[in-house]
Write a structure and sequence with these properties.
Layout (H helix, E strand, L loop, with lengths): L1 E7 L6 H17 L5 E8 L7 H15 L5 E11 L2 H13 L4 E6 L7 H6 L2 E4 L7 H20 L7
Parallel strand pairs: 1-2, 1-4, 3-4, 3-5
Helix pairs in contact: 1-5, 3-5
Length: 160
Amino acid sequence: MRVSIYAVGRMKAGPERELVDRYFDRFSKSGSALGFEFTGVNEIPESRAQSSDLRKREEAVRLYDALNAGAALILLDERGKSLTSETFADRLGQIRDQGKKQLIVAIGGPDGHDPELRKRADLVLALGTLTWPHQIARILVAEQLYRAATIMSGHPYHRS
């Protein structure tokens, strides 16, 4: 299953970018044996529309363009479900085992995600109830994808 990240906003060079790249590289290497092919991060600029609703709609259209028919979608949102790392790993395995060819994990812009996109999502996931800066959210997603792969493979990186 191809796994990609959809992110509203750009991540500049620096220590945060290096950390994200390190975890995505680890996920790419460890996930391939589990049927996960990391295909990268698709960055789109924030919408400049006048209203929050219109900005969310415009950003959602760009994501719909990236979704193939039958693709799985995980949206990050502080009002989503909080999962343990083990449960997140189980969900990734279930999505893969359902025969999905593509999984997109979406990090929204400052206004969040369009309500229609939330309805389309297979999982609305919270990284806690706090609101995180875009760069930190991306680091957390990268690390959790890598952690999920280590959990699924029985690697000692994750110890409970």
